[in-house]
Amino acid sequence: MYISRYVVLVMLCVPLFACSTQAWDGYSPVEAASLQALGLSSVEASHFRKMGFTSGTIQHWYDAGFLANNDITAWHDAGFAVDDARQWREAGFEFEAARSWKKESFYAKEAQGWHERGFDLLQAKKLRAQGLSTQ
Hints:
Elements: H1 2-22, H2 29-37, H3 42-50, H4 55-63, H5 69-77, H6 82-90, H7 95-103, H8 108-116, H9 121-129
C-alpha cells in the first residue's frame, strides 16, 4: 500500500515539474534565474518578454522606483522610457497627468514649473502658445 501511494505521488508530481520547466522555455537558465530573483513568475516574465524586456530592463525600472508590474507596463505602453518616467514622477506627476502633459509636448521639468505656478495643462498650453514660459 505504501509503495502504491508513492508511485501515485510521483506520477502526480512529474507533470507539475514538467510544467514549471516548460514555463521558462525560451529563457537561458541565467536569464530565468535573474527573472526569478526579481520575483517574477514565468507568466509575468513572458508578458515582459513580449514587450522586449530583459531582466536588465526590468531591473532598470525597479531601480527607478517602479515596482508594480502593471505600473511599468502602463508607463512603457504610453511611450515613456524608464528615465523619462522617473523624471515625471520626480516632478510630482502620476501616470495619467504625466501622459496628458507629455501628449501636449511638455517635458517633466517644464510641466512642473507651470504646475508649481498654479497653471493647469490647458492654461499652460495656451500661455506657451503665446510665447510664455516658466523659465
